Amino acid sequence: MRWRPRVTPHLFAAVGVFGIVMVAGAHHGLTVHVQRITGIESASRNCAHCHVLPRTEGPLSRFWQRDYLSPLQMAMTSDGSTLIVTAEEADALLVVDVARGTVVDSIPVGAQPHSVVLDADDRTAYVTNRRDGTVSLVDLHQGVELETFDVGTEPAGLVVDRASGTMFVANSNANEVVVFDLDDRRVTRRLSAGQHPYTLRATVDGQAILVTNRITDPVPYRTPPRTEFTIIDRQARRVTERITLDQAHIVEGVAVTPDGSLALATIARPKNLLPATQVGRGWMMTFGLAIIDLATGDVAQVLLDDVDRFYADPYDVVITPDGQRAFVTHAGADVVTAIDLAALRGLVASVPVDRTPTLANDLTASQAFVLARIPTGANPKGMVMSPDGTRLYVAERLADRVAVIDVANLSVVDSIVLGTEPMTFRRHGQRLFHNAGQTYQGQFSCRSCHPEGHTDQLTYDLEPDGLGRNIVNNLSLRNLRATAPYKWTGKNPSLYAQCGYRFAKWLTRTEPYSDYDLRALVAYILSLEHSPNRYRTGETPAAQHVRGATLFERTVTNDGTPIPPDGQCVTCHPGPQFTDGNMADVGTGGDHDSQHTFDTPALNNLYETAPYLHDGRAATLEEIWTVFNPDDRHGVANDLSKSQLNDLIEYLKTLGGSGP
Amino acid sequence: MSVKRYVIVAVSLVSITAWGGTGVGHAMAKLETGMTPAHDSLVERVAVRRAGTRIAVYDQWTSYTTADGLPSNKVFTVRVVDGRVWIGTDKGAAYLEDGRWHHVGVADGLAHPVVLAVEGDPETGDVWIGTLGGLNRWSVGRMETFNQFNSGLVNDVVYGVTVENGRVWVATAAGIARLDSRTGTWSIFNEQNAPMHEPWTYGVHTADGLVYIAAWGGGVLEYDTTDGQWREFRDPDGEMEIDLFPNGNRPLPR
Prior knowledge:
Number of strands of chain B: 20
Number of helices of chain B: 2
Helix content of chain A: 10-25%
Largest sheet of chain B: 5 strands, antiparallel
Distance between the termini of chain B: 27 Å
Largest sheet of chain A: 4 strands, antiparallel
Oligomer: heterodimer
Radius of gyration of chain B: 18 Å
Number of strands of chain A: 32
Radius of gyration of chain A: 27 Å
Structural class of chain B: mainly beta
Helix content of chain B: 10-25%
Distance between the termini of chain A: 79 Å
Shape of chain A: globular
Structural class of chain A: alpha+beta
Order of helices and strands of chain B: HEEHEEEEEEEEEEEEEEEEEE
């Protein structure tokens, strides 16, 4: 007898209903899960976007991750045959045969190589390694790192003074330029620079060294930025002049005209104290050059932007040997601007001194001196000119290529491929982060306010609530994982919400990121890490740090009075991120604030994130408690002696970041 | 106290300098022979004195007063830092450069007009200025203020400043504050962790890794930076004359 399954229509119906319920339930559960994590109702439910593609560790991650080079800065041999390129993410120095357009050697150096300088014989290279705090001495012929020198904290710019056997190094995270004796192999002089010194450049006569500084000097509360441009006497080894660049910051590249008369430095001019509604009027962030008369110290600023198009994040500037043209990379616009220097000089000379502040805000000025906008690959950074002045080489950092520009024709004539091409999820997010294409008229990129994912240390008027209300202190984007919610107001439960529709509506004033772009951007941001913590230098904590930790975790005052939990530091700032993720009113809200409860900030590497409190009114950590905590609402601290407060603050500086 | 005698006393007790702060009411004076030669000659003369021969008599001086550009004739301190002559007065600090006195006052960021101490950091070229309202760092025109509210400075009344291997020692009315200028780390020494009877400290100086502190009622304290040990120089008979002896067997530094 033939077997026949006893399947009835009812059973089919039951299985079908069960299946539908299961699928619907799973779909609902997934929706709830995604909404809970992202805070966005319409977020994509693609599991891979969160659970696979961002992962950088594990044996399988090699299938979706790539090792990138990220060329940053370059030097060229005196015969123009070889480019030497720092590969920031590969911890290597690349040797590139220009004629063949190929990488002929990759020499391991320290972590996060930054600047490179060649010795006169083109055989030896000096390379600053930011994450290591070292300078590598490299034999280019043998292709080996000969020696490393400990020079300080996050060395960036470098000038080698061969005559005296010394080198000048900008220790960016210590706000100093050190003079390092190459014979004795030690620092012999530490010169106080501005905030976050970045590029060093010798003048034409070699007598002075120019220093750009990225971050504004400390300014009074609700005051526009002003950033120092430092000049050092090379022989005397002392600072001779501190020139103020008013209302400018993120000063990175600098070049000197061949006649030695002018220095051109790249600048950003943020209108951080104007409401962000100005973005819609094309007036939030502008970019340009500071033109410094090296004889008089006079400064003029000009914008490189157009009236309806901005060229974000100028990074490097190079001048042709004949002094006729200058070139500026715009890392946020994927453009190199070519400048007629004679026209620029003429424009500046035509403006009376008392009108130079007006010139600094004139969006039409660039029409007088810009020769061309030359498109490049992603994130153009450092440049180098061939010795004969005919070719300009541009490091396309996030394309892993070098563009070759014909200086006469002002066009890209070649591209040297350095590394891998495939685009990973994180790399895509990295490009979005560094590109201003998503903002109205290309006014700014994420990086414009968060250089290297950190903070520009300014306060901003972001909310559309009128002039001067709800000023907020810009925060670092490093180590953000597990620190939700976001914004000082705690309005955004996730970075997806932070960088999503509201961000587009109120800040970028353009279309929001696509779901894929948004997730890639968030994946990149979540991968950002703090620098090594410079206060965690030994395996054993210093006695002062131990005392500070005890105060951080104390439950009674000096006289034995119990401290309620909400008055104890560790209640709101528990490790490992040192935030409980809750809102708190610590008595710092003012009349200009719409709310007096604020998101409890994480404390990692807080020593490099001044100013403090939600609106940046505390210039130093000390002021949080000596000035802005009169009623012990921001932790019970008024019974502390000055010695105890010092101990507590020194302990706080050790929190977070990497280190022993 | 005469100008000449003041310089000689300064040489024998504190340090060798070509410049003499003459105290309240006496403005400034310098040797006519100029800064560098005078410095050398002073060194030579001290050496001569130590050798037992007679002390040379200086008889050619240039006096500086407000008529020459000083902010005030009440001069409390003088130092030569990185080629500039610095003074502290009751109306701010000033430095002599290229034959002209440049004033540094409250409008320039000085914490308080009364300047009691000036010291230079040979490693950085920065000038540390002690005032009755806090500590200042002058670095080629840029002025920073450190006080008890915005920094780890223990007290705003600063009587003395010295720099030792990148560490700035500050004598204040509430003890010694020490700033590691390389890291920004502050430490405090007072009656709780140093052999001071009272926290008031009026002077601080350093040489060869040793830091000397003038402490009210506590004599002179010596701090050895190599091992963190203190040594006390006290008045053994309780009388207030100058007869300091070490409370220990270690010989005095040369």
